[in-house]
Write a structure and sequence with these properties.
It is found in: Golgi apparatus membrane. Its main location: Golgi. This protein has 248 residues and is an alpha/beta fold. The chain folds into two domains: 13-181, Spore Coat Polysaccharide Biosynthesis Protein SpsA, Chain A (Alpha-Beta Complex), CATH 3.90.550; 185-243, no CATH class. It is 33% helix and 16% strand. The protein contains seven helices and nine strands. It has a four-stranded mixed beta sheet with strand order 3-6-5-7. It has a three-stranded mixed beta sheet with strand order 4-9-8. The chain has a two-stranded parallel ribbon with strand order 1-2.
Length: 248
């Protein structure tokens, strides 16, 4: 880290293993033994099981790391600028924190071909969702994650994990806890064109590094590009940045 935040991060990959063949499982166990960063649980790794996956993740963290003050949940195609995140977290009420990109005034998707489709029997068409945190990246405080897990056990499951946990369950069991917005949070749906600059209104790469905390829906090449940008900008090699990220 560029700054001495005196914070320790433990990165873990949480995944289901029930639908993997024996060869794939052997590879996963080998990788887990080498890096000690895999948690493999007994469920099928499918999109419609994301709510189950997130609930199992909360259960595991609450049991194994009950005293850890914050849990950050993120997808594997997400870039995080941890310096900006740590700056955001200063002076926050950590135990009661939910932070991310809040969605408000969202409604069920009525298109059956969409992966976000919600049948009317599950949620009445035209009835809005409660405000919830976008599931690609959100942060939960210790008390919040414990209460969300307990509340989830007595709440009918909903297939969108972010809306279920930080919307439905939060509104029911933690009505006093809002969702704090991380403003430097962008989607690559807006990032067309040059793969290193990405830039709204002509930003240079180091302006991007200093101004974007979270970016999602990234390819592996673009993730690598963003981390190289961060390394070179933090270490003063600004002029080298432009050659680090060739077009995909």
């Amino acid at each position: 880290m560029a700054k001495n935040w005196n914070i320790t991060i433990k990165f873990l990959f949480f995944l289901g293993g029930s639908n993997e063949d024996e060869t794939s499982m052997d590879k996963l166990f080998q990788e887990g033994s080498q890096h000690r960063d895999l948690v493999i649980d007994d469920f099928h790794e499918t999109y419609l099981n994301l709510t189950l996956k997130s609930c199992r993740m909360l259960k595991w963290v609450n049991l194994r790391y009950p005293s850890v003050p914050l849990l950050a949940k993120l997808d594997d195609d997400v870039y995080i600028n941890w310096d900006l995140i740590f700056g955001f977290l200063r002076n926050k009420d950590a135990p009661n924190l939910i932070a991310g990109s809040p969605f408000s005034s969202a409604y069920p998707v009525a298109d059956p071909t969409s992966k976000f489709y919600t049948p009317p029997i599950v949620w009445e068409t035209g009835t809005g969702y409660p405000t919830y945190a976008c599931g690609v990246f959100y942060i939960l405080g210790k008390r919040v994650r414990q209460e969300l897990y307990k509340g989830a056990l007595s709440t009918r499951l909903f297939h969108m994990e972010d809306m279920f946990l930080t919307g439905i369950v939060r509104e029911r069991f933690l009505p006093d806890v809002g969702i704090q917005e991380i403003k430097e949070y962008i989607s690559t749906l807006h990032l067309e064109g040059n793969p290193w600059s990405i830039l709204y209104s002509g930003w240079g790469p180091c302006q991007f590094y200093e101004g974007v905390a979270v970016a999602h829906s990234l390819s592996v090449k673009r993730l690598q590009c963003f981390f190289r940008i961060g390394y070179f900008c933090k270490n003063g090699f600004v002029h080298a940045v432009k050659i680090l990220c060739p077009k995909e």
